Amino acid sequence: MQHVHDLIGIGFGPSNIALAIALEEKRHTSRPLDALFIERQLSFAWHPHMLLDQAHMQISFLKDLATLRNPTSRFTFINYLYEKGRLTDFVNLKSFFPSRHEFNDYLSWAAEQFDDACAYGEEVFEVLPEEQGGEVALLRVRSRNHTGKLVERLARNLVVSIGGMANIPESFRALRNDPRVFHSSSYLQDIAQLGDPHRVAVIGAGQSAAEIFMDLQGRPGAPQVDLVTRARSIRPADDSPFVNEIFNADFTDYTFSRSAEERAALLDEFWHTNYAVADLELIQQIYKAFYQQRMTGGNRLRFLRQHDIRNVVADSNGVHLTLWDQNALRENTVRYDAVVLATGYAREHHKTLLSPLASYLGDYAVDRHYRLQATPDFHPAIYLQGACEDSHGLSDTLLSVTSVRTGEIGSALLATPPGIANPAHLRRDAAVQT
Ligand SMILES: Cc1cc2nc3c(=O)[nH]c(=O)nc-3n(C[C@H](O)[C@H](O)[C@H](O)COP(=O)(O)OP(=O)(O)OC[C@H]3O[C@@H](n4cnc5c(N)ncnc54)[C@H](O)[C@@H]3O)c2cc1C
């Protein structure tokens, strides 16, 4: 008979590492869970193609994998520093914001401690219902490893923590396989493969676009770099204290308890804390780079603000972008050797992975503990991390509430005896209609 895991976690990024930690720390007081995580990368890496040398965290190190849930955990960033022998030196930095390289090292250090619980190099592509007596009792999780081999596992419960998928604007979709056009999520890898492109466009006005612009402009080959944005300016992320309260763990209760309209209004009001904004310090560096250019002359760097991309054509000479200048009301076509799409992430991919379960899951609504609502004949619990912004607020895609959220999911999992009927019911007919 095939082994049945109590829990399978898809993805082993910060969200599921934090869950592994929370479950480990609950072992003293609860039954142990047989949990396995499946990660498509060959080993742990945190957004590896955006590990730029100058980049640092946008959030306090205290919002690590454990501290806000359990400050005495051995998995805190402070304990990581202590074990690495850097705690005192870090204090001398007087910073809440470690470099992204250091935070990646911290996350890797934590992930390594769960090597036995993670199958690396496997990508989950679908989850099937496993019926017993006409009801869904288990889930069959299907993945493919890096050699192409199919792997199937059974689980009583599932936690889907797969992060975001590259958001590619419609006008670039036909060029998905063109190595000269790529998303920021693969930036370091793809730019290295192009050698020294002379003329590069960076599309976007957020943190990634700003970081990539600064990285490119400082490269030894001194490429021509156009920063192309629809907006008039690059806006700073508002992380002032009262605004930052929306990222407090207890704000999740407030958000979840509001009506759908009120939640949408909250997202709208605070959108610019996280989207289409960059660190003020980085914006100042970019401004300085343009100022320097004004002093020395030349137009190697251009800020093509208020520009819409009207057409994209690729040929053997390059990628040609037809840009509409909203201000000058003029159209211009520019040839590039590379185009970097810093155009954000979509967070709907769980619906593709779970599509064989669609008739049980209605409109993929979650309860307060991130559990997908399902029909009464569907018994496994499925939790989502990082895909609940609409119901749980802007902190959901960030590290802000990760440690607390995984404590909540861990408790919910442990409170559900194996095989119990799903308490988060949908009417079956309602589920089928959507
Ligand atoms: C460049 C960058 C910098 C950021 N900096 C910050 C920051 O400073 N502060 C902050 O709060 N947030 C930041 N974020 C937001 C980011 O979402 C969180 O930091 C964090 O990575 C979320 O963790 P996660 O585990 O939910 O998702 P991810 O980190 O995206 O991890 C998901 C994991 O799932 C794996 N996976 C995906 N699909 C599958 C599949 N089908 N099968 C198996 N494995 C799969 C992926 O390989 C990945 O390892 C940043 C995001 C980016 C892109």
Automatic annotation (TrEMBL):
This is L-ornithine N(5)-monooxygenase. Belongs to the lysine N(6)-hydroxylase/L-ornithine N(5)-oxygenase family. Its cofactor is FAD. The keyword Oxidoreductase applies. The gene is pvdA. The keyword Oxidoreductase applies. Coiled coil: none annotated. SUPFAM superfamilies: FAD/NAD(P)-binding domain.
